[in-house]
Write a structure and sequence with these properties.
The chain is built from three helices and four strands. By secondary structure, the protein is α+β, with helices and mostly antiparallel strands. Strands 2-3-1-4 form a four-stranded antiparallel β-sheet.
Length: 89
């Protein structure tokens, strides 16, 4: 299964490293990544592969949200199929 991970926060050093380490620790492969700064705000969107992740999706979403909050990050993860269904015209 693939998923979309979004990260939003006030910019600070190490955000990308922190989030990618969280994913790697859970055997999640990053397939594509885009990030930008809008003044002092950081935004990142990733397409990830969850095939080897040992956690159920709901637990993964909870863990990522909690770990993000520890750094002041707003991290959301959504299944790719649901994301695409929501954005069809």
């Amino acid at each position: 299964m693939k998923a979309i991970v979004s990260v939003f926060a006030k910019d600070s050093k190490g955000i990308t490293a922190y989030v990618t380490a969280l994913l790697a620790e859970r055997e999640i492969n990053i397939l594509d990544i885009s990030q930008t700064l809008m003044q002092e705000f950081f935004a990142m969107i990733m397409l990830v592969d969850l095939e080897d992740c040992p956690l159920p999706f709901e637990e993964l979403a909870r863990v990522m949200k909690e770990k993000g909050a520890e750094w002041g990050l707003d991290i959301h993860i959504q299944r790719q199929d649901i994301f695409e269904a929501m954005h069809r015209i």
